[in-house]
Description:
Blueprint: E1 5-7, E2 10-12, E3 15-20, E4 25-29, H1 34-41, E5 52-57, E6 66-74, E7 77-82, E8 87-91, E9 105-112, E10 119-126, E11 134-141
Amino acid sequence: MNALRVIHPYKYEGLWVFDDAKAGLVQEPFVSGADTIIDRMVADIPNAYQGFTLVFSDKPFPGYQGEFEWRREEHEGNWYHNAELDMEGWLCPALFKYFDSAPPKLYAQFKAKSADHFRMSFSATRSLTSSHSTLLVFQVFLPYEPYEGQVHR
């Protein structure tokens, strides 16, 4: 099992959700405080609602931004507390797709998606006025286009 896990949450109908085809999860929501923690942690990421990268582990790693301490089990999920934000969030049983048991601590990094998550295409065409000049046309498709594991909304 990998030490670092990566998901790409996005907003769908007002909820933070994520897809992970390898784990069999589609539009898995963050609720009960976990959504509010995400709101705070991604406040400075432009267009985070369209998707951001969440790296997480049960061990500290370079660049982690949040430490979440296990508090208690409830309704087959687990509550975690972030002391810096003084906030709690509940993680549903999908946590067990990534860990055999609820880790005593979780560490997380919230960051903008890399350019790899943006589909970019370009084409070169000759200018009509000069046979030596080349016009490059770039088309950028933002992450509302589905990426691996994401379904159309």
